[in-house]
């Protein structure tokens, strides 16, 4: 009974505060630049991570941040829940740009804020055209110093699901020439792939070593990233 109550209290907080904060951010958007908009969104994500500890009882930790290169990088991350799309802004000290579905831009308030954050939207049309567009947009964000985050499995998956990576993330690293940094987590154990957290738990994120596309072929890079992610997932 208590877990159901806290779950719905958290949902009300998240949706209510998200809508209110989105309105505030949208009102301030014309007066702040790109960095200011990102900072405003980051504060809501930080507050959300804090509230998660007390309502659903979800804590988190991140290991391996020292592996992130000082310069541009592409994070290839396992996607298990909504959690990582909210918490990464709070946990990763660098400015990140998600590669996300263009459909999200049409969500009231949230999508409008997302559009103003200058991230990378993906139109799921022709695979070739989508890759070209994402490569171009990602190269622009990388040139600005962002860390681009892409989910190489293309969608959310259960924590115990076999790792099945598409080639898009590795191809993006090879096309832009920046290091690929694999990341795994166990968010799916706490926050279901479809749904909301309904019990306490600890989410652990592990950041792996950077793999340079300048030092290996696309096939070798894909194999190296896949093997690291598969091995680390077995430890989580």
TrEMBL record:
Mind listing the UniProt keywords for this protein, alphabetically?
Acyltransferase, Membrane, Transferase, Transmembrane, Transmembrane helix
Identify one Pfam family in the record: Acyltransferase
Top-level lineage group: Bacteria
Q: What class of enzyme is it?
A: transferase
Q: Which GO terms describe its biological process?
A: phosphatidic acid biosynthetic process
Stretches that traverse the bilayer? 12-32
The GO terms describing molecular function are:
1-acylglycerol-3-phosphate O-acyltransferase activity
Q: What is its EC number?
A: 2.3.1.51
Q: In which pathway does it act?
A: Lipid metabolism
* Domain named Phospholipid/glycerol acyltransferase: residues: 73-188
Q: What is this protein called?
A: 1-acyl-sn-glycerol-3-phosphate acyltransferase
